[in-house]
Structures are given as C-alpha cells and as structure tokens.
Specification:
The structure holds two protein chains of two kinds. By secondary structure, chain A is of the alpha+beta class. Chain A folds into two domains: 41 residues, Orthogonal Bundle (Arc Repressor Mutant, subunit A); 75 residues, Lrp/AsnC effector binding domain/regulation of amino acid metabolism (RAM) domain (Alpha-Beta Plaits, 2-Layer Sandwich), CATH 3.30.70. Chain A is built from five helices and five strands. In chain A, helix 2 crosses helix 3. Chain B has a four-stranded antiparallel beta sheet. Chain B has two domains: 41 residues, Orthogonal Bundle (Arc Repressor Mutant, subunit A), CATH 1.10.10.10; 75 residues, 2-Layer Sandwich (Alpha-Beta Plaits). Chain B is 36% helix and 31% strand. The longest helix of chain B has 13 residues. Chain B is α+β, with helices and mostly antiparallel strands. In chain B, helix 1 crosses helix 2 and helix 2 crosses helix 3. The chains are: A alpha+beta, B alpha+beta. At the A-B interface, helix 1, strand 1, helix 4, strand 3 and strand 4 of A face helix 1, strand 1, strand 3 and strand 5 of B.
Chain lengths: 145, 152
C-alpha cells in the first residue's frame, strides 16, 4: 500500500468529482503546477490506486431503461466449477457486474436491459441457462443515490 | 437526439478506452478529426456522454472490506423510505444506496478498512437506522467483472 499525503487525497477527491479533469485543472484545484500534478497522477496510476478512466454514458438516453440486481445461487456445488459459471456469465454483454459473495447467494449480478421484456429474454435465454445456476432472485432498480 | 451507426461506433470505442485522443478516435472510426470532434461534442451537449470517471482501487486505499446489505423496511410508517434514506446518506462508509422493487426494498454498499471496522459501523450506525425490519449481508469475496459498459 503506498503512502498518500493530503495532496494525493485532494487530487483523488477532485478526480472523483470529475474524472475528465486535465492535469492542469487538477493542479489548479489543489495548488500545484501542471507538471507537478501530472507527476502525482502518474504515480497514483503506477501504484494501482487509480485503475483507469471510463466514459460515463447516459444509460436511459441510450435506451436502457431497466437495471436489475440478481442474487444467484449455484445448484450443484462442486460438480460445475465456479470458473465455468464465471466465464459464461462474464461473456453476457448485458451483465455489467459479477461479484462472488459470501452469504445467502453465491453471486451478485447487475444486468442492464432495454425494458422488462428484454430483461425477461436475457433472464430466460442467457442467465437461467448458465452452467450450474440454481436459485435466482431479481430486484428491479427504482432509484439510485 | 438520434444516434446513427457512426455515433454508436464512437461510443463503443470510448467505452473500450476513454483516454483515446480525438485524433486516435477519428482514425479508428474511419473519420477525419473535425467531424469526429463535432460528433463527440454533440453527444456531450445532448447529455448522452455525461463525462469521465476514474476507477479507484479501494484495497490500495486501505478499504479492504466491502459488504452489500439487503434491507427490508417496515412500511407501516408512511414515510419509512424517506426517513431511512435521509439517515443512511449521512453514513460516510455507505458508498451507494439503491431502492429496489422485489424481495428487498433497499440495497447499500458499505466499505470499511477491515472486519472490526465494519462491525463497528454495523453496530453503531446501520442498526441505528430508522424503520429497519430485516437485514441480509453479502460479503464481497472477489469481483469477477465490473464495468459500466452498455451493449450498444
């Protein structure tokens, strides 16, 4: 774990508010020159604190009106390897998040769909047919934040 | 705003690599730089592109434990949702809150330094939230996939 000072923390806070800021803009916010800010950002990237930058798109404007969180239990533990399930579920483009968890479910999934009938299609044709899949619980996202 | 195939191609490329320069993006999409830049700007103005986000490694920041709480509220009180959400938003370790339609009402992501820290947040802050009826916890073991990528 790398040591972060207050300036590093201020840089991370600025970038969490707006990940599109240039090194010069970050520097202006935290009181550093552009090259000094750039060096610190590079250091945070090298140390693996900043993993990358993503574009943020408006899901609804692109026609994806439905988000569903799924809890998945595997049916035949030991018979189907976790790797087979993970490989197959990660390949589904509508599945954005796959998390292996401890608790009443084995996996948590986040699925985006155009509407509820699109979700039903994904659930029936892609999720329910995954190797080893058992009990599945769906919770539809109403609001976030 | 209506998107055509070229717009969608640009969005797919940016979902692959958000750090592409306009020149690289134009080249990969088979456009010249000017029209490429105008298309991106149009999508930003229309709010299709909302911005950029950094991905942080929470473990490297000393937050080693992540727990997803699935919460059922006592809905006999009319304002249970509002009061619960108002108080839950005040807990700094709560990284995200979602209201749901299904078997549970709310889910919350809690990030803590370690299990002892999590226990403390759970006992002093989470269990003190109003209108709680039931809590189930799922502890993150590993993240196999986490992307905001849309299948466009």
């Amino acid at each position: 774990m790398i040591d972060l000072d207050d300036t590093d923390r201020a840089i991370l806070q600025a970038l969490q508010r707006d990940g599109g800021l240039s090194a010069a803009a970050v520097g202006a916010l935290v009181g550093l020159s552009q090259p000094a800010a750039w060096r610190r950002i590079k250091r945070l990237e090298k140390a693996g604190v900043i993993l990358g930058r993503d574009i943020v798109l408006d899901r609804e404007k692109l026609g994806f009106d439905v988000v569903v969180y799924l809890g998945v239990k595997l049916a035949a533990k030991g018979r189907v390897g976790l790797e087979d399930f993970e490989r197959a579920v990660c390949a589904i483009p509508e599945v954005q998040v796959v998390q292996h968890v401890l608790g009443v479910y084995d996996y948590r999934l986040k699925v985006v769909a155009r509407d509820l009938s699109d979700f039903e299609r994904i659930l029936r044709r892609r999720i329910m047919t995954l190797p080893g899949v058992g009990d599945v619980e769906s919770n539809v996202l109403l609001s976030e934040g | 705003m209506r998107l055509d195939d070229i717009d969608r191609r640009l969005l797919r490329l940016l979902q692959e690599d958000a750090t592409l320069s306009t020149a690289d993006l134009a080249e990969q999409a088979g456009l010249s730089a000017g029209p490429c830049w105008r298309r991106i700007e149009k999508m930003e103005t229309a709010g299709v592109i909302k911005g950029r986000r950094i991905r942080l490694n929470h473990k490297a920041l000393g937050l080693g434990v992540e727990v997803f709480l699935r919460i059922t509220l006592d809905k006999t009180a009319g304002n249970a949702f509002d009061e619960f959400l108002r108080e839950a938003r005040k807990i700094p370790e709560v990284a995200g809150i979602q209201t749901l339609l299904g078997r549970v009402d709310v889910r919350m992501d809690v990030r803590a330094r370690d299990l002892a820290h999590y226990q403390d947040i759970y006992k002093t802050r989470i269990l003190a939230l109003p209108h709680l009826l039931d809590i189930e916890a799922l502890m993150l073991v590993s993240e196999v996939k986490n992307t905001e990528r849309l299948p466009i």
